[in-house]
Amino acid sequence: MRTIGRIAPALALLLVAALALLLVAPLAHADLDPRLKSRLDAETATAVSQIVAQAQASGLPTEPLVDKALEGASKKASGPRIVAAVGQYALALAGARDALGRESRETEIVVGAGALLAGVTADSLAGLRAALPGRSLVVPLVVMADLLARRVPAPTASNAILAASRAGVRDVELLKLRARVEEDIRGGMPPGTSAMMRGRALLEPGGPLLGPQSRPRPSAP
Asked: What pLDDT was estimated at residue 27?
């Protein structure tokens, strides 16, 4: 099973170096992103900017990294904590691109990084790409991330989306799956149970036509 840390050793080393910058005197930062200069102290802005620069040099999306730093500033997080969060996000972006392929769209990489940070394995992302070669993974990844946000366990969420994708389930049906799981959870069903049963229902004959009034029921013991 691949881990984020193994995928991007250069970024990992940069994160250590960036954190070290917080222990030394302020560096010149005239060329830093104005948003970072205005919201972060000089040391933190410099450390974050080095991570962003390395990500840019590696061909990774950088705007999400700046947004992560600004989010930390809004929450009044400490400098080291902001740098660590940005560094972890950079590693996740690198991991997502490695798993999904270097030709992946920026949106796929960003959503895939969120999935990795939420607990989905890089192997699951790679399996999704293998199941849908040449097809956009934005919707499957968004649905997977949404299931995780609704407290569906990562293995259950990834298995449900992988199985559906391998079976040729369309994006519109995956979006319906997300909606049905949300309805089930509001009705009191455990998130994992709902995702597992809704996923199985999609794979059955006529499954995609399953409506909210047809809540799947656990199999009899």
From this structure: 45
Q: How far is it, in rounded angstroms, from Cα 144 to Cα 149?
A: 9
Torsion of CA 157, 160, 165, 166, to 10 degrees: 130
Nearest to 136 by CA among 177, 157, 106: 106
Give the whole-angstrom CA distance, residue 86 versus residue 183.
Answer: 34
What percent helix, strand, coil does the chain show, rounded to 5?
70, 0, 30
Least Cα distance to 94 among 59, 126, 120 occurs for 59
The list of the chain residues with pLDDT below 50 reads: 1, 3-7, 17, 20-21, 23-30, 209-214, 219-221
Which amino acid type is present at position 140? P
What letter would DSSP give residue 136?
Answer: -
Q: Are 156 and 192 in contact (CB under 8 A)?
A: yes
- C-alpha 108/C-alpha 30 separation (Å) is 33
pTM > 0.70: yes or no: yes
Structure tokens at 118: 């939420």
Determine how many CB atoms are found less than 10 A away from the CB of residue 167.
Answer: 12
The structural domains of the chain, with segments of one domain joined by +, span 1-102, 132-213
The angle formed by the CA atoms of residues 208, 215 and 147, to the nearest 5 degrees, is 70
